[in-house]
Amino acid sequence: MTRLRFDDLKQYSDVLRSRRGDPITVRFVEPRDAEELQNYFRSLSSRSRYNRFLGAMSELPKPVLDNFTHVSERDGFTVIATVQVDGFETIVGEARYIFNPADGSFEFGLSIEDRWQGSGIGSALLKNLECRAAAFGAERLFGDTLRSNQSMIALARKSGFAFTKNPDDWKLVRFTKEIAVAPEEIPCASWRIAAQNAALTPVVAG
Ligand SMILES: CC(C)(COP(=O)(O)OP(=O)(O)OC[C@H]1O[C@@H](n2cnc3c(N)ncnc32)[C@H](O)[C@@H]1OP(=O)(O)O)[C@@H](O)C(=O)NCCC(=O)NCCS
């Protein structure tokens, strides 16, 4: 498994494009982003928040916010998608993921701010997550969504995910994708760095 350099998380940032071609930066969240991230969740429509957290929630409870803003291999990672608005970095999306080395799975959830939905950011972020999963050495990625969440189901279908029942909750549908695409085709900094490190690691014979 690739180990991340926690003292230099900026190097894993990527620039994606919206459908219109606007640059969208995807970077790991930092503790200093806590207030902005909370504002982002508060600003989502109640429907989007409901879909994101699979239930009603007006904002993130403090311990959950702390969890979101402190990335770690044990508890998971949060990335934020940001754009420049009038010279200010503004959060327009986020994703949270965790890699489970025991079964090679990479679980994630994501959201895009309501005014930015339908701009191609969700699908660009999903491709980016696939590349980040490949950098960990993951074999498959998956998420769970409410059966009623047609937007997420359509996005997952379009992105090549297959659907199964959630083993624990009939209200949820699980979307899963094997990581078969060569990550070079969907480049991300995490993958490039992992590939460079692998090339530098001497192979020990025997
Ligand atoms: C689901 C979500 C992430 C999609 O992100 P997005 O940036 O709006 O999606 P995109 O613009 O990249 O759309 C990609 C594809 O998804 C599907 N899609 C997106 N929004 C849709 C909608 N409202 N209805 C139907 N299909 C939709 C379409 O197939 C679309 O492709 P198309 O525009 O070529 O038809 C976003 O709607 C969202 O954040 N929802 C609230 C939170 C949530 O539901 N999270 C999922 C929990 S895991």
**From the alpha-carbon coordinates, what is the Rg to the nearest angstrom?**
17 Å
Reading off the top of the CATH hierarchy, the class is best stated as Alpha Beta
Helix content range of the residues, please?
Answer: 25-40%
CATH topology: Aminopeptidase
Shape: globular
Strand segment count: 8
User: What is the H level of CATH, i.e. the homologous superfamily?
Assistant: Gcn5-related N-acetyltransferase (GNAT)
Structural class call reads alpha+beta
Bound ligand species = coenzyme A
In this structure, how is the largest beta sheet organized?
8 strands, mixed
The average pLDDT value, as a whole number, equals 92
Written overview of the protein:
- With 206 residues, the chain is α+β, with helices and mostly antiparallel strands.
- Helices cover 31% and strands 28% of the residues.
- It contains 6 helices and 8 strands, in the order ββαααβββαβαββα.
- An 8-stranded mixed sheet has the order 1-2-3-4-5-6-8-7, sandwiched between helices.
- The site of coenzyme A has 23 residues, from α2, β5, α4, β6 and α5.
